[in-house]
Amino acid sequence: MNLDFTREELDFRQEVEEFTRRELPPNWDNQIVFWPGGYGTIPIFETEFQEVAKEFSLKLSGKGWARLAWPEKYGGEASVMKAAIVGNVLSYNRAPAGGVASSIVAPSLILVASEELKKEFLPKIADGRAGFWLAYSEPNAGSDLAALKTTAVEDGDDYIINGQKIWSSGAHVTEYAWALVRTDPDAPAHKSATLIIIPNNASGVTIKPIVNICDIHSFNEVFFDDVRVPKKYVVGEVNQGFYNVMLALQFERLTIGSGSFRRVLDELIQYARENVRNGRPLSENNQVRRALVDMAIEIEIFENFYWQSVCMLEKGKVPEIEASALKLVFTELSVKLANTAVDILGPYGLLDKDSTRAPFGGRVGIGYLDSISGPIGAGTSEIQKSILATRGLGLPRQ
User: Fold this and answer.
1) What is the 3-state secondary structure of 51-95?
2) In the predicted model, is pLDDT for residue 247 greater than 80?
3) How does DSSP classify residue 127?
4) CA triplet 245, 107, 176: central angle to 5 degrees?
5) CATH superfamily of 7-130
């Protein structure tokens, strides 16, 4: 497998880098505390950054970069590689872009939805007019989605939905739920659920905030009380929701902030060069040097996983096992990077963003807290290891 970029791809990357530096607010890094791999500090989920995020999304849409991986039939270029390059550059610069709509909903719609749904939602996703949140987890259904209780009962041309979702990232700043609901309570668990789009403004939808460990409102709990949704909003076939969610989870595990780790590493290296401890630059401290080298090696391994998966998608292959491996490496790396950063910065690394003495605007201290969310969301590390054991190594299920 050749992971070298072509001249055209390198030129395109340069164009994206220049665009991103030009279009982001000049003080953007000082406003946000985003940490790679976590779910609690993503700026597109915060109310105060919505204006910047929507404006940036419109500019991306104007360049045609929000739909690069889509088939030409839907306005794209069918180029997974170009889309990955854009995502890599944007994540390195912590740009307020991406999210559930473009990374999960759009590719899933293209593969399994009706033409009516594609026609309605793809244009709105492309220019940022339709934001989505994932309505999967419930108080008693997280890793085991088969235990979900939210029901959808047929009523003429509609479904009546009742139930509760939780840990709903961005539900308060988006327009639609990408929801898994039980449509056949008498069927076997994995043949009883359906994927459906629920408008947030539908009567009976109640969204309540959950302030996370980072003191940020990114999560929510959402209640559905006799919410009426047209049947045309069903995604794929009825009672095939688990299959479609597994498909969507593969996209979620692949569309990650691949450049964000490299950005933090670059900042830590620069910090080690510029700061002195015990009369010597940190860059001459052997413990610091070893920690940075170890981190650089792990990030290089992660990036190779990422680009390998991108190459597979570009060739029309489905990186099912690779997606689980990538997700596992990605989120566990978030924890390792946070611990390494705290060790290098010392007590100052744990200072909050409100402290004038906090390096990197307090990002490391908050990232230390946020990193624990990564190995839980989109399938826990234990789930990923189980998938790799059974499907990757051929080991028996316990």
Assistant:
1) HHHHHHHHHHHHHCHHHCCCCHHHCCCCCHHHHHHHHHHHHHCCC
2) no
3) T
4) 70
5) Acyl-CoA dehydrogenase/oxidase, N-terminal domain (1.10.540.10)
C-alpha dist (Å) from residue 33 to 49, 70, 323, 333, 348: 12, 31, 27, 18, 16
The set of residues, in sequence order, having a beta carbon less than 8 Å from that of 48 and lying 6+ positions away, is: none
Domain ranges of the chain: 7-130, 133-240, 248-392
Q: How far apart are CA 320 and CA 184, in angstroms?
A: 28
Tell me what pLDDT residue 174 has: 96
The region that residue 167 occupies, defined by phi over 0 for left and psi between -120 and 50 for alpha, beta otherwise, is: left
133-240 placed in CATH 2.30.29.150:
no
Which fold does the domain 248-392 belong to in CATH? Answer: Butyryl-CoA Dehydrogenase, subunit A; domain 3 (1.20.140)
Position 152, amino acid: A
Pairing mode, strands 151-155 and 276-277: unpaired
185 CA to centre of own chain: 31
pTM: 0.91
Task: State how far the Cα of 59 lies from the Cα of 53, in Å rounded to an integer.
Answer: 10
> pLDDT above 70 covers what percent of the chain?
97
The DSSP bridge pattern shows strands 151-155 and 234-235 to be unpaired
Which residues lie below 8 Å from residue 322, measured CB to CB, with a gap of 6+? Answer: 305, 308, 309, 312
